[in-house]
Amino acid sequence: MEHIQQDNFMKNYVDYIVVGGGASGCSVTSKLLAKNQSVCLLEAGYSHRNFLLDVPAGFFKIINDSKYVTYHKTIPQKHLGGRQNIIPQGNVLGGGTSINAQVYMRGRSEDYDEWQEILRGNNDSHGWSWKDVLPYFKSMENNSRLDNEYHGSKGALKVSDSIHINELTHDFIKSVNQLGVPLTQDFNGREQKGVGLYQFMNSGGKRSSAAYAFIDPQKNNTNLQLKLQSKVIKIIIENNKAIGVEYKKDNKTFKIFANKEIIISAGSFITPKILMLSGIGNEKELFKHNIKCVANLPGVGENLIDHPECPLIARANGKYGYFKQVQGWRMIKNALEFLMLGKGPVNSTGVEAGAFINPINKNDLAYIQAFFVPSIYINSDTVNFIKDDYGMSITTVMTKPKSRGSVKLQSNNPNDPPIIELNLLKHPDDLKMMIAGQKFFLKALQEGPLGGKVKEIIIPNIKDLDDKKFEIHCKKFVRTNYHPSGTAKMGSDDDKLAVLDSKMRVRGVQNLRICDLSVMPNINSGNTSAPAMMLGLRCGDLILNS
Ligand SMILES: Cc1cc2nc3c(=O)[nH]c(=O)nc-3n(C[C@H](O)[C@H](O)[C@H](O)COP(=O)(O)OP(=O)(O)OC[C@H]3O[C@@H](n4cnc5c(N)ncnc54)[C@H](O)[C@@H]3O)c2cc1C
């Protein structure tokens, strides 16, 4: 039998244990430390200090093959012709915020007012409406351009406009504008719909992740025990009370205990896995794997939501975009320009502009977000179909998908990855909206200044393109936009799939909260880092005020 050690690196008891140092885990930790609580933050991955992670242009370098990324894989997806989606997630302090494309987005007010409605049930003081969460978004934000009703400029998270924009990006904005979409300078203000440049979580060409914003300022705080490359296996529960966790570091197993609470922030795939390995989940599922049930919560691992994305890719009729900018003498020139002057394409994550539209009813809320990339977007799904060249890509993303998937255990062995059923496009309305979004943005590649720089559209094949062919194209290329959420959702008392109450407490187990995207009852419309950090700050207050 394996020998389990008490954690004798440092103190064996802390006030709080936070499992997972990602977007939410870092921000909740900082809130607790600010009130002089002792916290042990256990992170499975590596330190965030790495040049490639810091510079915006590092994004496309690390995304397909890096030790800072865990590549989760779905089971074959029935609605995508049996393909298996690869879903990268951060394996580093800062989690997704240390590896992502840095686009700063919150979603819209209606997202949070919807949560408020979902949580209403028999509890009247749930506190998740837009009015409740906006102060958290503003308090974390250090925006270099905006300081108003919607934005803050004194927070820890640096937000700025990109220093470098490719000319194709301006063409994209003009073309989409000519299609009737209004120009916007701010997707996080009163109105989400529009087309324009994104803002980014960085400053002066350096990433501002949750690790930099929330943990670095605490590095000399003796109340913080930060343990990297420490993978939590399960929660220690006695008499339905969470008292500690077991974790692995350097192939040894350790235990550490909390005087107050344990907060699980390991992301939407691993949070439900840890809960299930600890006996919290659907009793019947746990029984299959010989795990004793501590709390029968059938919602654990259910309600998996992700934003599906689908590409449109075109070859350019000239030397436009970023092709060859990371090769040979151009790479050296760009690196020198960045290091000596802080200028040039190294300042770009490659995703520079976007749009929020409703391609079916322009008077309704936006249900499609678009990302414009001034190069040919090669990933695990497109790699076999295209050759790199001068070109451009638009990905269309469904912001409020109706499809739901699940995360289940493969076995009771913590080393086994979870079974992920992502179910993108399972719901027929999702396919309909995706096709409408694709059709709309295809026009941007065919008309206006952008259309003028297109030699040929490579994906999809536009010859005799009809709805049936669009459907085939979507099934072939739809993939994650990297935002898995919802697998341990907050819900009202009468919701049988609610894992948490509206204070993020696990139902039926004392001293245990969840704090990451898993808690979302429905996904926000737009990228998810800022919402995940907001969840951490809000969770900190809920804990400290309880
Ligand atoms: C490639 C990519 C691009 C993205 N682009 C953007 C973007 O441009 N803008 C945006 O807003 N969002 C973007 N996102 C999404 C955003 O980064 C995530 O939604 C967000 O980080 C999720 O926060 P979280 O706290 O739920 O989980 P995470 O940030 O994933 O944090 C979970 C943490 O738990 C750790 N962990 C896992 N298992 C264990 C364990 N057993 N023990 C201890 N620790 C564990 C992980 O290593 C990780 O650090 C992107 C994400 C990815 C992956």
Structure description:
This protein has helices spanning 23-34, 51-54, 59-62, 109-120, 130-140, 167-178, 210-215, 267-277, 283-288, 328-341, 428-446, 448-451, 467-477, 529-544; strands at 4-6, 13-19, 39-42, 69-73, 86-90, 141-143, 157-161, 194-197, 199-200, 202-203, 206-207, 224-227, 231-238, 241-249, 252-264, 280-281, 295-296, 308-316, 353-357, 368-373, 391-398, 406-408, 419-421, 454-459, 479-480, 512-514. It is of the alpha/beta class. It has 14 helices and 26 strands. Strands 1, 2, 3, 12, 13, 14, 15 and 26 form an eight-stranded mixed sheet that branches. Helix 1 runs parallel beside helix 14, helix 5 (130-140) crosses helix 14 (529-544) and helix 11 (428-446) crosses helix 13 (467-477). The site of flavin-adenine dinucleotide has 40 residues, from helix 1, strand 5, strand 13, helix 8 and helix 14.
Features:
2 domains, binds flavin-adenine dinucleotide, globular, 7-stranded antiparallel β-sheet, alpha/beta, Cholesterol Oxidase, domain 2, FAD/NAD(P)-binding domain, 8-stranded mixed β-sheet, 546 residues, 14 helices, 23% strand
Secondary-structure blueprint:
Layout: E1 4-6, E2 13-19, H1 23-34, E3 39-42, H2 51-54, H3 59-62, E4 69-73, E5 86-90, H4 109-120, H5 130-140, E6 141-143, E7 157-161, H6 167-178, E8 194-197, E9 199-200, E10 202-203, E11 206-207, H7 210-215, E12 224-227, E13 231-238, E14 241-249, E15 252-264, H8 267-277, E16 280-281, H9 283-288, E17 295-296, E18 308-316, H10 328-341, E19 353-357, E20 368-373, E21 391-398, E22 406-408, E23 419-421, H11 428-446, H12 448-451, E24 454-459, H13 467-477, E25 479-480, E26 512-514, H14 529-544
Parallel strand pairs: 1-15, 2-3, 2-15, 3-12, 6-7, 15-26, 16-17
Antiparallel strand pairs: 4-5, 7-9, 8-19, 10-11, 13-14, 14-15, 18-21, 18-24, 18-25, 19-20, 20-21, 22-23
The structure holds flavin-adenine dinucleotide.
